[in-house]
Protein: Transcription termination/antitermination protein NusG
Amino acid sequence: MAEEEPQKDWYVVHTYSGYENRVKQNLEQRRESMGMTDFIFQVIVPENEKIKTGPNGELKKVVENDFPGYVLVEMVMTDQSWYVVRNTPGVTGFLGSHGQGSKPNPVTKDEIDRIMHRMGLIERKVDDLNVKVGETVSIIGGAMNGMEGKITAIDREKQEVQVLVDMFGRETETEVPFNDIDKIY
Structure:
């Protein structure tokens, strides 16, 4: 019988707030030094560029951590890889672990795809968007990334929505592709 390839999944690691990038560095170094490159793959701090208005009304691009205190790790969950990640300086545990030595549950593919698209790491494919005119959505890509707005029209053929956003104190309508918006639940 052929041996099955181990399942690699994404997990959420809890860190001390403000130590996310340090934990990422530590994990990447430990992955190499402890021979875990076949079990621990990517380490990502979910960050996003947002446009903020300064005190004088000027617009500035600011990088914000989407989930302070959390880091995403793509890994094959084994006793050894779990031990290496758990015992990395700055790591306080895994999200979805119930304690007492239980291993955590992985993050779903949809959740990871949404985060990766928001960061510009992958192109998200949306066959049909489950939104209605009048609903508020979050823009997760393009020039209006990080803004929220109300849907005024939906063009399913072109896979675009018209969104009314507040820009410079005025409501402005803009076209946004399906894959650049996220429904606010």
About this structure: The chain has three helices and eleven strands. The CA atoms of residues 36 and 150 lie 46 Å apart. The chain has two domains: 8-119, 135-183.
